Amino acid sequence: MEQMFTYVVPALGVLGLIVMAVKSAWVTKQDAGDANMQELAGHIARGAMAFLRAEWKVLFYFVVIAGIILGWSGTLVENSSWIIAISFVIGAVLSAFAGYLGMNIATKANVRTTEAAKTSLAKALKVSFTGGSVMGIGVAGLAVLGMGSLFILFYNMFVVSTGGNVNGDAMATALEVLAGFSLGAESIALFARVGGGIYTKAADVGADLVGKVEAGIPEDDVRNPATIADNVGDNVGDVAGMGADLFGSYVATILASMVLGREIVSVDNFGGIAPVLLPLVIAGLGLMFSIIGTLFVKINKETDSVQAALNKGNWISILLTVGASYFVIQYMLPDGDLVLSRGGSISFTKMGVFGAVVIGLIVGALMSIITEYYTSMGKRPVNSIIKQSSTGHATNIIGGLSVGMESTVLPILVLAGGIYGSFLAAGLYGVAIAAAGMMATTAMQLAIDAFGPIADNAGGIAEMSGLPKEVRERTDILDAVGNTTAAAGKGFAIASAALTALALFAAYVGLAGISSIDIYKADVLSGLFVGAMIPFIFSSLAIAAVGRAAMDMVNEVRRQFREIPGIMEYKAKPEYEKCVEISTQASIREMVAPGAIALISPIIVGFAFGPEVLGGLLAGITVSGVLMGIFQNNAGGAWDNAKKSFEKGVEIDGKMEYKGSEAHKASVTGDTVGDPFKDTSGPSMNILIKLTSIVALVIAPHISEVPHGSVADAEKVEVKKEITYEDGKKIEKVEKIVIKE
């Protein structure tokens, strides 16, 4: 029974994919509206696929070259294998497929949401959220199936077939090869997120500056040549990019917990692999409870809160995961003390592990709540930006920057408390399992996140189709909530990245054969400073890329307004495909440099200066990247909702201000500045943090300072057990477990 339990994980992944297919079929069956609506949706779908084909063509060469190098390097050290190349390719393919799944359903759900909005807000929410849940469930299902299946394969190949020790070199090799899967997933995620972010923001900025500000036409007006590219961008950036992003995050979190789980001596019914298997099981259960949570996301009346419905589904999935985790941990982990042989054989109990899972879920929930506060309409931070818009563009920018900087305080305190609390509960394994607990409900989190771009596209189609005012009002309600949930999702992702990076960092230290990172050493301190700089240069490259691409877009839109007579009078159609082509070419060209920094910098530092300096680099990237990610995500989200607040009217110093006012124009400028913050560089920070750590983990055996031995490079580990007799008398017994290869 216990041995068969291993196969439950991929089975849950398959079940998730079946549910995804059923939901996808339901969305496809919904009414897609009239011929004009379908034509516009067709433009968006074709543009999105054109981008993916162009991106995949470039990434194909990257995957082949990187796979060959990985396969060759796997033969150079004892604790790796050429099979890591296959693992890498599978991770890359599934990551790309995860993005495609989301984008494919989003381009179908958008026009169907528009049609549903003709009937009611409740129906529009059902269609858009079901479309989002297809992506969420599909991404999590692929991750659980991929990780679960490959772990079974590599465990049997490298451990069972050789009779190796589950705490020794054999399991280390299996997990090193499995790390290739995570490296492939995160590599594709980075390029998808950066490339998609550049695409969507180049189109968005171009459409806003020329259309809304210069020409004075509404957002998503059919006369704006960039409007189709803008809607395409919502799909390739906020859907396909986010899908690949969270797929990579999900996989990296599970991997970090598994690598540290190998270092735990556990006398259990699973042959000693319960701590390694546990993160996979929690992920599978989180997938199932996320599916259940999606059933509760619904409203009945036009006045019902969409945000409250989403929160209800989210909390149900979290609470069910907490309850199930308790019983799973009780079943899988042994009674008495577990020993993590790192830093003097730290011992903890299975209740400590459960406590760490709870802490992770609490941290994730708090991060979402804090982000929601800083980016929601009607709250103090957004209202402060609205008020400062009345005095001009500059004060709007100052207000947004201030909100973004302030918004780092509470999340960092929550993260610090979560790290310390989970460490007290179960050592470094507790930190890793806290991240796994946080990411367990990724399917639900991603469903909430993905419904926003679908609603945004639905509003665009409604505007371009000239549908009645109430249709756009309903999609705007969904879109406004979607902006907040998107910001909350990015806050959730950066929080998980911080915990995961610390766990990966701890795993790297063990594999690299170093016991600590001494910042008193000049070279290590230098590495720390260089690492702290990397998120800044990464952000600079990403934002500058958006600026250059947006300039091309602005010039093209101006040219069409100038050279194609009749556009403004609805007598001629703009050349939408020209704008789509500009965004596609710019994003593919510009995504290379930021991606290269993330992949190459750990390799150069590691091989040139050694594992300890690389450890300093990773620490700098993690701390700086987390702060940059929170700051940019929240500033951008607050600017966006400040702008949207003017659509219903806002009161500033006793006077109502609406769209078209000077204050609104200032808010458009702020939103334009915030766009690359929240959709390009900001969300890329969490991938940068994890990808550099995974690269370090993969090269650790190559730069290790000591031979890679057993868990603690020692023969014996002491396990203290306290035994209580019926008469209340207590004695302490010390057992010694001998670890041999």
Automatic annotation (TrEMBL):
It is found in: Cell membrane; Endomembrane system. It is an enzyme of class 7 (translocase). GO terms for biological process: sodium ion transport. Its EC number is 7.2.3.1. Keywords: Cell membrane, Ion transport, Magnesium, Membrane, Potassium, Sodium, Sodium transport, Translocase, Transmembrane, Transmembrane helix, Transport. PANTHER family: K(+)-INSENSITIVE PYROPHOSPHATE-ENERGIZED PROTON PUMP. The chain crosses the membrane at residues 6-27, 58-76, 82-106, 127-155, 239-260, 272-295, 315-333, 353-374, 492-514, 526-550, 591-610, 616-635. It catalyses: Na(+)(in) + diphosphate + H2O = Na(+)(out) + 2 phosphate + H(+). This is Putative K(+)-stimulated pyrophosphate-energized sodium pump. GO terms for molecular function: diphosphate hydrolysis-driven proton transmembrane transporter activity; inorganic diphosphate phosphatase activity; magnesium ion binding; potassium ion binding. The keyword Zinc does not apply. Belongs to the H(+)-translocating pyrophosphatase (TC 3.A.10) family. K(+)-stimulated subfamily. Sodium pump that utilizes the energy of pyrophosphate hydrolysis as the driving force for Na(+) movement across the membrane. Its cofactor is Mg(2+). The record marks 486 as: Determinant of potassium dependence. GO terms for cellular component: endomembrane system; plasma membrane. It comes from Belliella pelovolcani. It is a multi-pass membrane protein. The keyword Transcription does not apply. Homodimer. Requires K(+) for maximal activity.
